[in-house]
Write a structure and sequence with these properties.
Blueprint (H helix, E strand, L loop, with lengths): L7 H21 L1 H26 L4 H32 L1 H23 L4
Length: 119
């Protein structure tokens, strides 16, 4: 059996080209791969809960649907709480701006008193 030995530069070029193609594929496929990987991770996290529901005699389809409904409810609740906090933060922006202006004025007056100069 004859084994052909290729020069180092051919092997190096092949490896670098393959690496460049793989990286390009991952960059181009990122919008599809990221949600897919996240969904696989979430599905793996819910396997023990699904197994528990099956042990207490709930059918697989029903337990899967129940888990999906519960997870949607949890995500919607978290989204609602974040939205509520952002709205409250936006309502308090004027008060925070006023307090920040007062703090800056106090610091300016303090520096002017210590240095004896006017800023």
């Amino acid at each position: 059996m004859v084994i052909s030995q290729q020069p180092f530069y051919v092997k190096a070029a092949t490896v670098l080209l393959s690496l460049a193609l793989i990286i390009t594929f991952l960059i181009v496929a990122k919008p599809v791969l990221v949600p897919l990987i996240i969904s696989i991770y979430i599905a793996i996290l819910f396997i023990p809960l699904c197994n528990f529901l099956e042990k207490i005699r709930i059918p697989r389809l029903t337990s899967a649907a129940l888990i999906v409904i519960i997870s949607w409810f949890i995500m919607a609740s978290i989204l609602y709480l974040f939205t509520k906090q952002i709205v409250e933060f936006g309502a308090d922006m004027d008060l925070m701006k006023t307090k920040l202006d007062d703090y800056i004025l106090n610091i300016k007056e303090y520096v002017e008193n210590i240095t004896g100069t006017e800023l």
